[in-house]
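Sanity check. The docking grid for magnesium ion depends on where the pocket ends up, so I'm generating a full predicted complex first rather than guessing from homology. Inputs follow.
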Amino acid sequence: MKDSAGLEVAKMYGSNAEGLETLIDRETLHRRVDELATEINRGYVGQNLVLVGLLKGSFVFMADLIRKLTIDYEIDFMGIAGYGNMTEHSGAVRLLKDLNVNIEGRVVLIVEDIVDSGLTIDYIRRMLLARKPAKLELMTLLDKAKRRAVDVPIEYVGFAIDDVFVVGYGLDLAERYRGLDYIATVDIPDGQNE
Ligand code: IMP
Ligand code: MG
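Predicted complex below; grid placement will be based on this.
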């Protein structure tokens, strides 16, 4: 994912949030994350829930979510990387780190930063379903539904967004901007996304 075009764009914008435009401000973002945590608290009482975060993008979202949870839960992470360039998905996904926990018979909620083409989450869902969880559901902070290439069921969506490239709150452009405490759009100039 770390291609040279992406790095060039990131350098152009610098690491000081220049060239970024706020899409979801901090207050709106955190209010919605709190609401999503409330939905988990209501929806998974007594289910010994396993939250599965997909690295790296989901770690900030996951961290904020679990601090609002009042039910019993366990967290684990999977490390994955897509092949292809910065914004277009080739469809292939590489597993960099598998779960530590055995999810057979467990209630699992995948926690994702963004669903774009849906290819990543489709791949992960198939892989996890093969392990026979009692239930497998998905929560994504952001949903770019217009970009969907494959149909994936999503139980919880934070925000539906248009077809724009976003950074912040765990999401990166060539590894930058993950620490922004809001969601911003980045304009990727034509020809840079090769
Ligand atoms: P999908 O397989 O096309 O759904 O892509 C999902 C992955 O692509 C996400 O988990 C992100 O890592 C990355 N991605 C998709 N859209 C964006 C974006 O707007 N900003 C940053 N990363 C993105
Ligand atoms: Mg991701």
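Relevant for the grid: The chain is about 25% helix and 30% strand.
Also worth noting: Residues 26-43 form the longest helix (18 residues).
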